[in-house]
Amino acid sequence: MRMCGPVGGLLTALAVVFGTAVAFAPVPRITWEHREVQLVQFHEPGIFNYSALLLSENEDTLFVGAREAVFALNAHNISKKQHEAYWKVSEDKKARCAEKGKSKQTECLNYIRVLQPLSTNALYVCGTNAFQPACDHLNLTSFKFLGKNEDGKGRCPFDPAQSYTSVMVDGELYSGTSYNFLGSEPIISRNSTHSPLRTEYAIPWLNEPSFVFADVVRESPEGEDLGDDRVYFFFTEVSVEYEFVFKLMIPRIARVCKGDQGGLRTLQKKWTSFLKARLICSRPDSNLVFNVLRDVFVLRSPDLKEPVFYGVFTPQLNNVGLSAVCAYNLSTAEAVFSRGKYMQSATVEQSHTKWVRYNGAVPTPRPGACINREARAANFSSSLNLPDKTLQFVKDHPLMDDSVTPIDSRPRLIKGDVNYTQIVVDRARALDGTIHDVMFVSTDRGALHKAISLENDIHIIEETQLFQDFEPIQSLLLSSKKGRKFVYAGSNSGVVQAPVAFCGKHGTCEDCVLARDPYCAWSPAVAACVALHQTDSPSRGLIQEMNGDASTCPASSPLPFPPPGSSSLSCLGPDSSSSPRSPWPASGPGPDRRLQVTLLPPFLSDQAQHVHALGTFHLFCQATGPADVHFLWEKNGRELEVCVPTQTHALPDGRALVLSWLRDALRESAEYRCSALSRAGNKTSKARVTVTRLEATQQERWTRELASWRAVVGEHDRMMQSWRKAWESCNQDAF
Ligand SMILES: *[C@@H]1O[C@H](CO)[C@@H](O)[C@H](O)[C@H]1NC(C)=O
Ligand SMILES: *[C@@H]1O[C@H](CO)[C@@H](O)[C@H](O)[C@H]1NC(C)=O
Ligand SMILES: *[C@@H]1O[C@H](CO)[C@@H](O)[C@H](O)[C@H]1NC(C)=O
Ligand SMILES: *[C@@H]1O[C@H](CO)[C@@H](O)[C@H](O)[C@H]1NC(C)=O
Ligand SMILES: *[C@@H]1O[C@H](CO)[C@@H](O)[C@H](O)[C@H]1NC(C)=O
Ligand SMILES: *[C@@H]1O[C@H](CO)[C@@H](O)[C@H](O)[C@H]1NC(C)=O
Ligand SMILES: *[C@@H]1O[C@H](CO)[C@@H](O)[C@H](O)[C@H]1NC(C)=O
Ligand SMILES: *[C@@H]1O[C@H](CO)[C@@H](O)[C@H](O)[C@H]1NC(C)=O
Question: Is 90 near ligand 2, meaning CB less than 6 Å away?
Fold first, then answer.
């Protein structure tokens, strides 16, 4: 991932420095090492990249899509393989792929990317097929591919490294992926015989998106099909509306209507209902912005009025590993699409465009709306009847001005020192009847965190090392069938099946109660910690206190236990060799660090850029260190003679923060260095600024960059204040 915009970078820098003392670094109460939990696993020798997981309708079979293979496993014990089907790439196809410069051993294979139910006895499967995406039907009775060899363009990426998402809705496949060999043409489409639709190929519709997830939300009660069901797509894309020097990523939710048939003239065979909005996941009081979406889970339950979207986010610049979970009500997103303001692009200063709120008149029917009862009543029975004005408007204004804010306007969970990758959420009823949304979040190091919210506090019940090799977990699936609740995790090396709780591992009543795990309760009758979803016996006599008050336990335990509410204590088993993991890298404001000079992002080395001759550009450097820390700027090895503005801010512990920004113009390419010098040592970062031919695009880019630097410098004072505030609270907490 590229360096992010300066504001994003500065914000993350704040998080890095102040993270040490900020209270959002919950530690898992227990860590289960891989060898401590005997998990059921599946791995077929010679087969890798187990990236697609699908549960059968009755949840008794787990289908797994890997590289060149699909497996059917017993969902109760995935080590029991029921069937397998291989889909290999032919040698001449492989050779043709290699001729185009792709790797024959890795890229020119068939990576299964789409694994969706087609009917009760068939799956719809698509694979990258050596950069020639293809789709086929898998007969579940014979477990054989039918050999249809459909062109999979637009449904499956060419490149196994590219993002993709898909969902099957009533036998039609909705997918988000790239449409060409280069991966440069993003598309959200519907594969349908009677009405295939796609997005317009235009930057305002999709701008270098990274697809994450898609799902359908049914509008009307079962059986009653008004064609008003919606399909939601989640992705991260490059911002068009905010201007920064670097590519600023924005997490999005987009929506299309199932009943959409495209326009008659305008938007023919294109979505007339494609609208998108920004997802907000940030902590306003700490300036933390999470702008890269990693995964989404839709929580549905009969006792929930509406589905809730859970998203896992990271900041764009994440060298320390910081992750968050935000939850959104469906109705909040729907309100933005059905009542929010649109954004409009305006051309300023010749070629330079800017996105602003559109305050003018909006045509009726409302652009981007589904064909609902009201539309039908007004004789618009299909999107094919929509007036040109409405269609032209939505074609030009796919982006909403309003953003989708999370429930409670804040993340559910923020965690340091971890990169979360995937999420599933289960609803568990505790013994006292309260319902807990249990979040299972996987990491890029093979672990699974299980967390709940307790009285405005987050409690990470446990961390389980699912994969021995600390590899990224790429897919998570929850089976929440009564009595048999499992989490399935897929990675490059295999699939793991984990129970939702390890109640039996809590050996005493105190340990069982202190776990504060809604799935577990102590049974004095059998003197064991039991899983509530597995006991048929009445809950009478069971002991569970979600506040961690273990005083209700029979007064016989000789074992010492931590005081109630000690969620920040990391309690490892006595035979566990690992030490409690620190929630933050060891970079607190300790005595050693005080003497060090540290460059903070955005580093100069990430600011390499192309400019046109004599166009102005800016470079930025930031560092902390002893009070005498200052900058030296060099150009091609010689100290710069122009004036370079610098700001120094004394920090309460005697250290200093220095910021410096250089404005320059060049005739020829040059190398710039900024060095933070002090008696404690020097730190240097360098970047090359390359002069290119004068072109309109460069000119435009230069104007944009200058404008964004102005914005950054303008914001600087405001940010200094939050820096200072955060620093002060940090010191209070730390000492
Ligand atoms: C497939 O798995 C191999 C082996 O772990 C890994 O090196 C490779 O990066 C994976 N490829 C993709 C596209 O995930
Ligand atoms: C799963 O199946 C394997 C092989 O049949 C067996 O050895 C193992 O004990 C089973 N595990 C569980 C938890 O049932
Ligand atoms: C699927 O396989 C079964 C058993 O071999 C066969 O009877 C059936 O016709 C096949 N279905 C299709 C659609 O090919
Ligand atoms: C997808 O499109 C292809 C080509 O138009 C068609 O043959 C196939 O049946 C479609 N599949 C689905 C699931 O709609
Ligand atoms: C998180 O990911 C970033 C970027 O890939 C990496 O530099 C960092 O070490 C990771 N952190 C953890 C705790 O895994
Ligand atoms: C809808 O069309 C019908 C039949 O053409 C007509 O009678 C009715 O007045 C129309 N309604 C509206 C709201 O235009
Ligand atoms: C989300 O929905 C819940 C329950 O339906 C409600 O209590 C809450 O106020 C909603 N939050 C927002 C931000 O709309
Ligand atoms: C740091 O820079 C100063 C001035 O350029 C130089 O005199 C000194 O030797 C440098 N120190 C180190 C440790 O590189």
Answer: no
Q: How far is the CA of 77 from the centre of ligand 2 (A)?
A: 6
pLDDT at 13: 36
Mutate-to-test residue for ligand 3 from 139, 140, 143, 146, highest number of ligand atoms within 8 A of CB = 139
- Position with higher pLDDT, 288 vs 448: 448
120 lines ligand 3 (CB under 6 A): no
- Indicate which residue's Cα is closest to atom 3 of ligand 5: 319
The residue among 152, 51, 75, 34 whose CA lies nearest residue 487 is 75
List all residues 6 or more positions away from 435 whose beta carbon is below 8 Å from its beta carbon. Answer: 303, 427, 428, 429
Q: Which residues of 641-665 are buried (b: 16+ CB within 10 A; e: fewer)?
A: eeebeeeeeebeeebbbbbbbbebe
Q: Binning pLDDT at 50, 70 and 90, where does residue 124 land?
A: very high
| Least reliable range by pLDDT among 108-112, 210-214, 413-417, 663-667 | 663-667
362: tokens are 């909006």
Which residue segments constitute the domains of the chain, with CATH numbers given? 47-433+474-496 (2.130.10.10), 501-552 (3.30.1680.10), 598-692 (2.60.40.10)
CA of 580 to the centre of ligand 2 (A): 32
Burial class (CB in 10 A: 0-12, 13-18, 19+), 397: buried
**Pocket of ligand 5 from Cβ distances under 6 Å:** 318-319, 321, 417-419, 444-445
Token pair in block for residue 390: 């409405």
* pLDDT at position 179: 93
Residue 214 has pLDDT above 50, yes or no: yes
CA Rg value for the chain: 28
Is residue 294 scored above 90 in pLDDT? yes
Confidence of residue 493 (pLDDT cuts 50, 70, 90): very high
Distance 19 CA to ligand 7 centre (A): 30
Q: What are phi and psi of 733, to 5 degrees?
A: -75, -30
Residue with tokens 């793991």: 496
> Token pair for residue 164?
């993709």
E strand intervals along 509-578: 520-523, 528-531
Kindly report, residue by residue over 655-704, the tens digit of the pLDDT.
Answer: 888 888 888 888 888 999 999 999 888 999 998 888 876 444 444 444 45
Tell me how far the alpha carbon of residue 79 lies from the centroid of ligand 2, in angstroms.
7
Q: Is 628 in the pocket of ligand 8 (CB under 6 A)?
A: no
Q: With a cut of 60, say whether residue 717 has pLDDT above it.
A: no
Instruction: Estimate the crossing angle of helix 6-18 against helix 696-734, to 10 degrees.
Output: 20
- Which ligand is closest to the CA of 490, given by its number? 1
Q: What are phi and psi of 270, to 5 degrees?
A: -120, 160
Residue 91 has a pLDDT of 94
Query: Where residue 346 falls among pLDDT bands split at 50, 70, 90?
Result: confident
Ligand 8: does its nearest atom lie under 6 Å from the Cβ of 608?
no
Q: Angle at Cα 229 formed by Cα 226 and Cα 233, nearest 5°?
A: 165
* Position in ligand 3 atom list of the atom nearest CA 137: 13
- Over residues 662-675, the pLDDT tens digits come to 888 888 889 999 99
Query: Residue-wise over 214-229: b if at least 16 C-beta within 10 A, else e?
Result: bbbbebeeeeeeebbb
β-sheet bridge partners, residue 233: 214, 254
